Amino acid sequence: MDVIVEEVTQVWPGRGGADIVALERFTHRFASRRFSCLLGPSGCGKSTLLQIVGGLEPATSGKVRIVDPARPREPRAPGAGSVMVWQSLNLFPWRSVLDNVAFGLEMQGMPRRERRERARALVASVGLTGFEDYLPGQLSGGMRQRVALARALVLERPILLMDEPFAALDAQTKIIMQEELAHIFDRTHKTVLFVTHAIEEAIFLGDEVIVMSARPGRIKEVLAVDLPRPRTPEMVSTPAFAALFDRAFHLIREEVMTSMAQQAAALSAP
Amino acid sequence: MSAARGATRLAERALPALVIVFFVLAWELVVRARGIAPIYLPAPSAIALYFGRMVADGSLPANLGVTVLRIFAGFAVAALAGVGLGVLMGMSRLAARIADPWIAALYPLPKIALIPLLLIWLGTGEAYKIVISAITAFFPIVISAYAGIREVDRGLIKAAQDLGASARQIQLKVVIPAAIPSIFAGLHLGMGVTIILVIAAEMIGGSSQSGMGYLLMQAGQVMETEKVFADLVALAVFGALVIKLQQWIDRKVAPWTAYRDGH
């Protein structure tokens, strides 16, 4: 599934009548089976873009089409074929690990036995066998992250939207989760839109890194990441990785400075 | 080191009980040594004696039973109506708009002030005691249920929507379970005020010849202070049992609330 975003603009009504332009004329084709990372300073509208693509938020203007490359004439509306993994996870605290993972299947009306079987397989695939009956509150951050991932993957939707999913994890857990996600991508080849503000993470995971400007969010540059797959942690220390990091760092640096100045101005405004 | 820690743990377990024993003993000794008249402060041994007698002649169990029935009747009415309306208000903006001014106006009214009116309307029978306690308990229950539904984490609703839940599924499978801790908190408050109001109604109603409130008033009027204390002990034990029961139900129905940061 391709995600085609055309001239998408998102405006929030701001305090005192001054509207906030979160995204401005964002245009990009997120190609099938490609892992795209959206990299930008906070407030640049990356999360907003995911919500629009996921059909959870209408865009102020512009268009999002979901297109099966085999049937280019039958575009579908945003939200079709996608599922989100949230930064705040949004696991249902009263449901066990298994019931959290089975939630989407349950909503589709799949019989209990079948959905539990499917969920069990997904729980196993993220390495949580034995924790099926635990509540999310009993798990560590990394384990909860796996539950959230399994809950999204069980639906087998072709588009995976990930909103800074690893931002809250400690450094070691984050590295392991990144590797696992890279493996999952190698197996399933979904279209992935991955929002992050960590440069290394974007390069390590992505086929392309879309560097965004400070608010209003626009595309500043698209970096192609031609590191081979499967990705391994050793690649982080290769010259190719370093060159990409350098490039992305310089692009993002300016934007982060602009973003910080904007935030300072917003705070000191009357 | 570990022996010291073991001793600390033992002290932690034993000390609360020891303090109670010490308190009762000190009370007994002071009453005896100072020769305090039982109508002011009876000794624990005298209270225990009366307690035993009242249990044996059946007056304590019978009256406590009547009071407990009234409490649960009033609470059941308040819980059904309060949770029902609170959930309805949380789900329907129209219902919230209609009910809100009534709740805002009636909530701060001291419900005891309604007793004369209810006595005129309902007489001094069971209906009056159940209605006064139900009205009082209704407000904290409806307000907590409404707040619980309204304050459900938007993230959970969005996640459910993204996972394909319909509006109806979101209400049933996300909003209501997410509101359960708040609904239960309201029920706890409601149970507390139901107990207060039933006892008060039994005291004030005058004509009713049963219940712990009646027993207390009767004993107080003839200065049988030992009986008053025995009644208070029975009520305190009953209250503690109700709280334990509620905590047990909470753990059974909503075990996830024991873990903070559950999602």
What's the number of helices of chain B?
10
Helix/strand-derived category of chain A reads alpha/beta
What's the main sheet of chain B like?
none
Overall 3D shape of chain A: globular
Gyration radius of chain A (Cα, Å) is 19 Å
CATH superfamily of chain B: MetI-like
Structure classification of chain B:
mainly alpha
Total individual domains of chain B: 1
Average pLDDT of chain B, rounded to a whole number, is: 91
Biggest interface and residues each? A-B, 25 and 27 residues
Count the strands of chain A? 9
* Number of strand segments of chain B: 0
Shape of chain B: flat
* Spatial strand sequence of the major β-sheet of chain A: 5-6-7-3-8-9
What would CATH call the architecture of chain B? Orthogonal Bundle
Oligomer: heterodimer
Molecular structure report:
The complex is a heterodimer of chains A (270) and B (263). In chain A, 37% of the residues lie in helices and 22% in strands. Chain A has 270 residues and is of the alpha/beta class. Chain A has a six-stranded mixed sheet, with helices on both faces. Chain A has a three-stranded antiparallel sheet with strand order 2-1-4, with helices on one face. In chain A, helix 4 (112-125) crosses helix 5 and helix 7 packs across helix 8 (239-268). The longest helix of chain A has 30 residues, at 239-268. Chain A is globular, with a radius of gyration of 19 Å. The N and C termini of chain A lie far apart (47 Å). The model of chain A has no long low-confidence stretch (mean pLDDT 91). Chain B is mainly alpha-helical and 263 residues long. The longest helix of chain B is centred in the last third of the chain and has 38 residues, at 167-204. Chain B is flat. At the A-B interface, helix 3 of A face helix 7 and helix 8 of B.
